[in-house]
Amino acid sequence: MSTNQSLVLLNEMATFVKVVESGSFSETARQLGTTPSAISRAIARLERALGTRLLYRTTRKLRLSESGQQVYQRCLDMVNAAQAVMESSGQFHVEPQGIIRLSVPKAVGHFMIHPHLPEFLERYPKIDIQMLLEDRYVDLIDDEVDLALRITEQPSGGLMGRKLIDIDHLICATPEYLEKHGIPTHPHDLKQHECIYLGEQISDSKWKFQQGNKSISVTVRGRYAANHTGVRLSAALQHLGVASLPYFVARHALQQQTLVQVLPDWDFKTYYSGGLWLLYPPTRHVPPKLSVFIQYLADKLAAEPTLFKFK
């Protein structure tokens, strides 16, 4: 494609970005003050020029083709670059605005992210937050998500982002439970205790511990398993057993000594530990609304240096 042809299609490229972001031709037409048929013709011109199908359209939704995903990222770079030019021109200041769709694991969203959002919304009155609390894997393009928080040691390839903090887990119980049933001094002692674990798969009942170079795996049992951290926290506080919990969920109870850490000399290892990463699709120019949100979260979590430390 020649430079002249590319310049002619700049409007179509920007329209394509709008269609992907809004999810429909009619909504894009409303935002741009035109008709759905005009939007459809613009997309058709772009597809003809590129020689590829960009969108699959059904009666209910639009879906990007494989090539459409790549073209969308390039076009988005173009739109963001144009925005950056306008902001750097000094003629006017663009206040961060728009909707941020944020995918977050349920417990992380409830206990860690939500408490900081009211201040952010007050600080940036033109930004709206749509937080999607879900533990499933989210495809940022297909699910139309701007940012995703994931607990992982190795972020998915093809995404950009930054590590915010480390997520640690521990096991804990109430002083009342331990007084009645005894305090475990070795991981194997847990076989004699009621243990409250995740219970989503068989491996969740195999608790792993490490002390220096020594690793131990113990198969625990208990009458209560729950795949919600808030429920396991509540069960532990009701003296039902020794619970596995992320530290950020248990920390207030630990500080108030309504829960105490069990086996503090051993590191509790779990598949659900790792770094908390904030990820987004690759782009040369991060929109202002995302830039300020990413920095805000990073600053808030960094301001609590003891939040994820215990023992």
UniProtKB/TrEMBL annotation:
<protein>
    <recommendedName>
        <fullName>HTH lysR-type domain-containing protein</fullName>
    </recommendedName>
</protein>
<keyword id="KW-0805">Transcription regulation</keyword>
<dbReference type="InterPro" id="IPR058163">
    <property type="entry name" value="LysR-type_TF_proteobact-type"/>
</dbReference>
<keyword id="KW-0804">Transcription</keyword>
<feature type="domain" description="HTH lysR-type">
    <location>
        <begin position="8"/>
        <end position="65"/>
    </location>
</feature>
<dbReference type="InterPro" id="IPR036388">
    <property type="entry name" value="WH-like_DNA-bd_sf"/>
</dbReference>
<dbReference type="InterPro" id="IPR005119">
    <property type="entry name" value="LysR_subst-bd"/>
</dbReference>
<dbReference type="InterPro" id="IPR036390">
    <property type="entry name" value="WH_DNA-bd_sf"/>
</dbReference>
<dbReference type="InterPro" id="IPR000847">
    <property type="entry name" value="LysR_HTH_N"/>
</dbReference>
<comment type="similarity">
    <text>Belongs to the LysR transcriptional regulatory family.</text>
</comment>
<keyword id="KW-0238">DNA-binding</keyword>
<dbReference type="Pfam" id="PF03466">
    <property type="entry name" value="LysR_substrate"/>
</dbReference>
<dbReference type="Pfam" id="PF00126">
    <property type="entry name" value="HTH_1"/>
</dbReference>
